[in-house]
Description:
Shape: globular
CATH class of the largest domain: Mainly Beta
Low-confidence stretches: 1-26, 108-113
Number of strands: 21
CATH architecture of the largest domain: 3 Solenoid
Strand content: over 45%
Mean pLDDT: 85
Amino acid sequence: MIEQSNNRRWTLPLAGLLLLVAACNEIIDNSPPDFQNLKESRPIGNAKALDVRLRYDIGKLEVRSDGSGDLFSFNLDYDARKSKPRFDFKMNGDRAVMELEMDHRFGIGNSNKRANELSLRLNDSIPLDLDFSAGVSDSHLDLTGLDITRFHLRGGVGRTEVSFDRPQEKPMAYFEVESGVGNLTIRGLGNARVEHLKVDGGVGRTDLDFTGEAKDARMDTEINVGVGQVRLLVPRSADITIEAESSFLSNLSAPGFEKNGSTYTRRSTDDDSTKIFIRIRSGVGGVTVELI
């Protein structure tokens, strides 16, 4: 009986070891990459609006406006052994929907440094509803000149830069950001004239730049701080109110503001100045407010 018990005791660890070896063989892949290219575009046609649903797991991502007349166009370089793109386009009445997903199989052993690269161009003359999810990526989103009504951005691991370099003709109704692990920078929120901004901070650094040339606009912002750091760059000419949870006051730095309990204010003498209202909820990280 003792010998049988010992045999059983050795059988289970040996089976687990065999399963681990088999799993490692699946993960480790030293085979050469199989680089492929996917290009797609669509004419505007009867489209009056465009929804873009993008899930990009790994690689470089670039998005910008396009005045060529196409509804959208993209150029994707990818390793077919590691990634599988899924593209779909459909029309719902006069509303177009474009979906692009990258199913990625992570592996160890391929030392080729060339990653997936996606360049996406969007039409600058029709309203856009954007829903982007970035994984392990280096993302540069130049949204200058685009008519964005709603934008939902989920950050992953890496660096994400979003910019609005010129005033938008129409305000963006809603902008929601879920920051991941890494650095997130959003520049020119005043140019975008974002009416409602919600930011859920993750692990890393988040820079929110509210500058721009918007006049007589109101920007309502909700910031939920995780364990990272958030820096707010606000224009001196704006009328600003910041409310923080009382438990978070020690983690908030706002020099140049008048403090009354958990409320920080800076009033403008210009009746046409931008009105910025920021609500901050507590977390482990900290928030710094800088006047520029």
